[in-house]
């Protein structure tokens, strides 16, 4: 793949509205232009340019592991390159923070200094509402982007833009948040593509499309948001590496690469437009990992499908599921989120994880895959969980943040790169965690 010319990065600066060089070259670090990003070893599809926008997209049983909170507190000093937290205070309310891998500027700090082992504030804005990071590790020069929504429904993206995954109408990288026009309610990031739901209920996708993951009926890659069909009742969206699923009218629809039955429609054929995965109309949540997916129904039941080589479906075995399969008989699941090859969920305030566990990502104090849901510790006040790429972070009801698992990039926010075998408190920080996308080594949180 031909290398793209880049300008020297400058640190800091406020986020800017999408724009920048029409030729799509260069890197923006605090002043305009976004990045480029891409998938595995696929040939690049033609790009079309037009301006629009996008949004985002993200559980089971047994008992092991203890929580190990660590005391301490931090406070913050600000700089345009990201606020370094030093001694004793919590995150600023509504402010965005990032830590972990930043090799493609995916933390939005105005630079690509990496790793960042402690939380740093992204600019000075205090109206952030939600965030997501790429579903694929930043390892091939084409992946590693992030997006976030503000309380005014504006969408902002930054990082790698090799395939136009930032939705700016070009393929220019940016190290600081850049606005994507439109009014958005949800966002979901795949490996090198992005999808979002507008406040009108319409669905839009952009970026790499080699497997039809944009759902626009072709394999053409787009560097600006493209509407998926004409429906205006989309309520949830989730993106895998090269596949996407969403909920419309309570039913689940999926499209993109079908390898390992990850589209849940009994075959492995590629789908370039949304196809029905489950016609049941009571689905409330959808989440996707690298090769598997799970969904919650309003009755509190959990359903998963796709690859199961590490037990990530929670079925008690390693048999792949070609269609949505109920996990256990429980009706008390309230949240489900897939990591790269593991899954975690909440029920009655308790935390349960299963699947791949070679770097302690299940938080059980030991390694070894688990094929059925296992309770993490005994706490009953878990409010949120976000598995990433071989690590996991979560929130308790007091908004305290805990992280565990692989820490090679400092993604656990402990100020070091030491792995943690059980949930460890990110001392002095309270906020809502948005741990890295399922393939990411980066973490985002909002105060």
From TrEMBL:
Cite the entry's keywords alphabetically.
Guanine-nucleotide releasing factor, Membrane, Repeat, Transmembrane, Transmembrane helix
InterPro entries from the UniProt entry = Ran_GTPase-activating (IPR051553), RCC1-like_dom (IPR058923), RCC1/BLIP-II (IPR009091), Reg_chr_condens (IPR000408)
Gene Ontology CC annotations of this record? cytoplasm
| Region of interest called Disordered, as start-end residue ranges on this chain | 1-43
Q: Which residues form the RCC1-like domain?
A: 186-446
Residues spanning the membrane: 52-71
List the molecular function annotations (GO) for this entry: guanyl-nucleotide exchange factor activity
* PROSITE patterns, A to Z: RCC1_3
Record's protein name: RCC1-like domain-containing protein
Organism per entry? Pilimelia terevasa
């Amino acid at each position: 793949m031909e290398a793209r010319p880049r300008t020297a990065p400058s640190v800091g600066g406020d986020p800017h509205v999408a724009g920048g060089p029409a030729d799509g070259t260069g890197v923006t670090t605090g002043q305009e232009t976004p990045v480029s990003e891409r998938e595995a070893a696929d040939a690049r599809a033609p790009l079309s340019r037009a301006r629009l926008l996008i949004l985002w997209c993200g559980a089971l049983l047994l008992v092991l592991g203890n929580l190990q909170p660590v005391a301490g507190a931090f406070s913050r000093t600000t700089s345009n390159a990201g606020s370094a937290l030093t001694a004793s205070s919590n995150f600023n309310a509504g402010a965005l923070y990032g830590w972990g891998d930043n090799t493609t500027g995916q933390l939005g700090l105005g630079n690509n200094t990496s790793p960042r082992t402690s939380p740093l504030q992204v600019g000075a804005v205090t109206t952030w509402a939600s965030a997501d990071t790429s579903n694929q590790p930043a390892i091939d020069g084409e992946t590693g982007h992030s997006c976030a929504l503000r309380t005014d429904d504006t969408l902002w993206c930054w990082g790698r833009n090799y395939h136009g995954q930032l939705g700016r109408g070009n393929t220019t990288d940016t190290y600081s948040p850049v606005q994507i026009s439109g009014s958005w309610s949800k966002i979901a990031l795949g490996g090198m593509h992005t999808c979002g739901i507008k406040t009108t209920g319409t669905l839009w996708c952009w970026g790499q499309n080699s497997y039809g993951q944009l759902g626009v009926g072709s394999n053409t890659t787009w560097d600006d948001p493209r509407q998926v069909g004409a429906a205006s009742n989309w309520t949830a969206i989730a993106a895998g590496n090269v596949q996407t699923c969403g909920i419309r009218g309570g039913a689940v629809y999926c499209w993109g690469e079908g390898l390992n039955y990850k589209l849940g429609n009994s075959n492995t054929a590629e789908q370039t437009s949304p196809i029905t995965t489950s016609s049941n109309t009571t689905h409330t949540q959808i989440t996707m990992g690298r090769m598997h997916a799970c969904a919650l129904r309003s009755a509190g039941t959990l359903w998963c499908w796709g690859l199961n080589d590490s037990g990530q479906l929670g079925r008690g075995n390693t048999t792949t599921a070609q269609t949505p399969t109920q996990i256990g008989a429980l009706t008390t699941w309230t949240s489900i989120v897939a990591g790269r090859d593991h899954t975690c969920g909440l029920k009655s305030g308790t935390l349960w994880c299963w699947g791949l566990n070679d770097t302690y990502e299940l938080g059980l104090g030991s390694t070894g895959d688990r094929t059925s849901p296992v309770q993490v510790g005994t706490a009953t006040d878990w409010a949120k969980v976000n598995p990433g790429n071989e690590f996991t972070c979560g929130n308790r009801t007091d908004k305290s943040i805990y992280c565990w698992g692989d820490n090679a990039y400092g993604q656990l926010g402990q100020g070091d790169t030491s792995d943690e075998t059980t949930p460890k408190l990110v001392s002095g920080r309270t906020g809502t965690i948005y741990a890295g996308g399922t393939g990411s080594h980066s973490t985002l949180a909002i105060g």
